[in-house]
Amino acid sequence: MSISSESDRRDFTTLYAEVAGSIGHLVLNRPECLNAINDAMLADLLEAVRWLDSHREIRVVIFKGIGRGFCAGADLNSLPFAQGRPETGNSWLSRRQVGQTGTRLCEAIEQMRPVTISQVHGCAVGGGVLLMTACDLRIVAQGTVMFIPEVDLGSPFSWGAVPRMVREIGPAITKELVITCRRFTPEEAMDWRWINRVTTLDKLEIEVEQLAHEIALKPSVPVVITKDHVNAVARVMGAGLTSYSDGDLAMAVNVEKESLEAARKYAQSKLTKSGGR
């Protein structure tokens, strides 16, 4: 079976998306802060996912980041509560919409027609962990630092994270990682069957591209059906696990005095190191 040779590219403020034949790439492009996520990147991600999904010739989309890391999670410079003050400048409805954007993004990634692969190196923190989890397949470089610091920030892990993680790795490990905020290794994640492969950094891109082209050469209809079938089974397995109020809970918690103080202390300790998490 041949692969289309058409190409296209769209540049956004914080990332770019490109299509080369049957393979698409979504590339986070804020290397100065380890591709930390701010409101602009959230909006760009949603639009880029829609744009890539509109290319009917694409069979596989690779998610990756430029620079030293995949994604350092939320950009602390953009979070009012991380500076020790609540978000009060916008209406409740506006804040609620922002709070639900991450959930909509993860749902949009999961519902993409092409198979999605996360190419992870350097770091995957908080929302970065969730971005890779929303993808169908995950290949991670040795030495990648991964952790979920939301509790230390005084915030619950939102964006529909808990139901996804419970489905992927079970209740006990989910509780441990989210509550303790400890760092975990790609090898541990491999043992939990959370990621597909661990490889060396110098071979990461090669292995991801090889896997993408291998999948792109398969008959497209059974691949799409298999992806949808597995996702449907996963949803049934997680019946009763819902994240509809994630954004509301995050907004409510982030005005608590204890949460604001925890976020302020965390931000002070981290911002000088990386500009993100």
Overall mean pLDDT score? 86
Radius of gyration: 18 Å
Strand content: 15-25%
Low-pLDDT stretches are none
Query: Which word captures the global form?
Result: globular
- Alpha plus pi helix count: 10
> Would you count the extended β strands for me?
9
What would you call the quaternary organization? single chain
SSE ordering = EEEHEHEEHEEHHHEHHHH
Structural class: alpha/beta
> In angstroms, what separates the terminal alpha carbons?
44 Å
Q: How would a crystallographer describe the biggest sheet?
A: 7 strands, mixed
* Helical content (DSSP H or I, runs of 4+): 40-55%
The spatial strand order of the largest sheet comes to: 1-2-3-4-5-7-9
Protein architecture, described:
By secondary structure, the protein is of the alpha/beta class. Helices cover 46% and strands 16% of the residues. The chain has 10 helices and 9 strands. It has helices at residues 39-53, 92-110, 127-134, 161-169, 171-180, 186-191, 201-216, 220-237, 246-253, 257-274; strands spanning 7-11, 15-20, 23-28, 60-65, 115-120, 123-125, 137-141, 145-147, 197-199. A 7-stranded mixed β-sheet has the order 1-2-3-4-5-7-9, sandwiched between helices. A two-stranded parallel sheet has the order 6-8. Helix 2 (92-110) packs across helix 3 (127-134), helix 2 crosses helix 9 and helix 4 crosses helix 5. The longest helix has 19 residues, at 92-110. It is globular and about 55 Å long. The N and C termini lie far apart (44 Å). The mean pLDDT is 86.
